[in-house]
Specification:
Elements lengths: L3 H11 L4 E4 L21 E4 L3 H14 L3 E4 L16 E4 L6 E5 L4 E5 L4 H10 L2 E2 L12 H6 L7 H4 L6 E7 L5 E4 L13 H4 L8 E8 L1 E2 L3 E10 L1 H15 L3 E8 H10 L13 E10 L2 H17 L5 E4 L3 H12 L14 E6 L5 H16 L2 E7 L4 E7 L8 H14 L24 H14 L13
Parallel strand pairs: 2-4, 3-4
Antiparallel strand pairs: 1-2, 5-6, 6-10, 7-11, 8-9, 8-10, 12-14, 12-15, 13-14, 13-17, 16-18, 17-18
Helix pairs in contact: 1-2, 7-9, 11-12
The protein binds flavin-adenine dinucleotide (FAD).
């Protein structure tokens, strides 16, 4: 009987540049992602160097019914890139590099395995700006960002990953290559097929290349940390920032007092530029302007106004790029929470809620978690985007009670008419709760689309839905 490994050996002869890692050579990191799910047992990790190799691999796996899980930087938080036991992990890591920057069209063509930070730097060196930014920027890859429709820090101004893509090259489950590398901002010729692959978590096709949308490099950046007493004042601040800074408002990140304590008292190397009392929120406001002469005074005038009106009770204004980095360090500190010296194993959420009700939700879910499970929680989020992050943990519990904690949080999300995922995706962790946010007809249509593109259910099966 021909085994999967026999087939991969045969394939290796056709595609000598593709590397297959098997048995003890399979790296630990390719067995799971940042979801805290235990490592799985793929039969091999395939490391292609070209779209043609990806196509041949997928065609062979399609013919033999072998499940394939695409992998980018493996920083996903919900199990999407964790391979299927007995399947093949398809790592895009060797397909990395910026192929072309078009300063007139404001586009960049990249291979899918390119780390996000490399994309950001390449844009900057060309005098341009790629706006997608998140804490995992050094490790995540652009293909993973697009497959999860990543959000991050500057959605309020530039939109999510979906808004930053003009074209993609995709390989379907049967090996068909779709070279949809559109470079034009406007293209209404029929259905916009690329959207199917953005945010579908590797279940409909493998992205191998992308044409990204660039923006002008900001002429100046201003930032402040504002201490605000009460969520009503947070909303006042957001309203005035939108009105006075207009489209230059590039981040509005809110940290609740419980989060602020963990980030600034427990994470090594992060200092607290402002002191707060219980019940306060700290808001990181960033403005990307055209030029310091005109726009920095505009930012300062707005700050004076919000201090004078007592919307803000205390604050710190960045005087240098170092200060801006220190402010962002308080927000990026969440990446260190998994460290046992800080919080250790925990369950993280990226729920979406009506902006007005985010604080009510935070209070209600915090109280319910504490009351029912003795579960601690901290809150922070991209409030301008209606996206709240919760980090929840039951002290000393191993493993953490994922189903019980999830049920409490997602039942309240449903009651608030929110979404179980604002930006991280569904993967396997949130599969049981997709129906909290999507209706039966929507889910049936999703299944029909999956069935149409991947009738044998080989591409990342068991992710998003069964
Ligand atoms: C510290 C930290 C901070 C984070 N902050 C944010 C944040 O602010 N906003 C946010 O949205 N996310 C955030 N994340 C989550 C994560 O970084 C993003 O989801 C990221 O977009 C995943 O990219 P990746 O390359 O690591 O993808 P992976 O984890 O490798 O894969 C994610 C999913 O995409 C699929 N996939 C990967 N590559 C491809 C491809 N080429 N073609 C088809 N499918 C593919 C996988 O099968 C999987 O389903 C954070 C994670 C960490 C660890």
């Amino acid at each position: 009987m021909t085994t999967v490994l026999d087939r991969l050996h045969e394939l290796q002869v056709q595609v000598p540049d593709m590397r297959f890692l098997t048995g003890p050579d399979i790296p630990e990191r390719n067995r799971t992602d940042w979801s805290f799910l235990p490592p799985s047992s793929p039969v091999a990790v395939a490391r292609p160097t070209s779209t043609d190799e990806v196509s041949k691999l997928l065609a062979a796996c399609h013919a033999d019914g072998v499940p394939v899980t695409p992998q980018g930087g493996l920083t996903g938080l919900c199990g999407g890139s964790r391979p299927i036991d007995g399947g093949v992990a398809l790592s895009l890591e060797r397909m990395s590099g910026v192929e072309r920057i078009d300063p007139d069209g404001m586009t960049m063509t990249v291979l899918a395995g390119t780390p996000l930070e490399t994309v950001q730097k390449a844009a900057d060196e060309a005098g341009l700006f790629f706006s997608l930014d998140l804490g995992a920027r050094g490790s995540c890859a652009i293909g993973g960002n697009l497959s999860t429709n990543a959000g991050g820090n500057r959605v309020i101004r530039y939109g999510m990953a979906r808004d930053l893509v003009l074209g993609v090259e995709v390989v379907l489950a049967d090996g068909t290559v779709l070279p949809m590398l559109n470079t034009m901002l406007k293209n209404n010729a029929g259905y916009d097929l690329k959207q199917l692959f953005l945010g579908s978590e590797g279940t409909l096709g493998v992205i191998t290349r992308a044409v990204l949308r660039l923006h002008p490099r900001p002429g100046c950046v201003s930032a402040a940390l504002c201490v605000v007493d009460g969520y009503d004042k947070v909303l006042d601040l957001l309203r005035t920032a939108r009105r006075r800074l207009g489209p230059m408002l590039s981040a509005f990140e809110v940290m609740w007092d419980d989060y602020w304590y963990q980030a600034t008292q427990r994470v090594s190397g992060v200092r607290a530029p402002v002191e707060i009392g219980g019940g306060s929120h700290v808001v990181l406001v960033e403005m990307q302007g055209l030029g310091a002469e005109v726009d920095t005074p505009r930012f300062e005038a707005w700050l004076e106004e919000v201090f004078a009106s007592a919307t803000v009770t205390d604050g710190a204004v960045a005087q240098s790029l170092g200060d801006i980095a220190a402010f962002w360090a308080t927000r990026d500190a969440a990446a260190e929470f998994a460290n046992p010296a800080v919080i250790g194993p925990h369950i993280s959420f990226d729920v979406g809620l009506p902006v007005k009700r985010m604080d009510d939700f935070a209070r209600e879910s915090k109280a319910a978690l504490e009351r029912e499970l003795g579960c601690q929680s901290v809150h922070y989020g991209h409030v301008g985007d209606g996206n709240l992050h919760i980090v929840a943990w039951v002290p000393g519990a191993a493993p953490q009670p994922l189903p019980e904690v999830s049920r409490i949080v997602y039942d309240i999300v449903r009651a608030y008419e929110g979404t179980v995922s604002a930006e991280h995706g569904i993967g396997t962790l949130k599969k049981p709760y997709l129906g909290h946010t999507r209706g039966p007809d929507e889910m049936a249509l999703m299944r029909r689309i999956k069935n149409c593109l991947d009738p044998e259910n080989n591409l990342n099966p068991g992710k998003v839905f069964d």
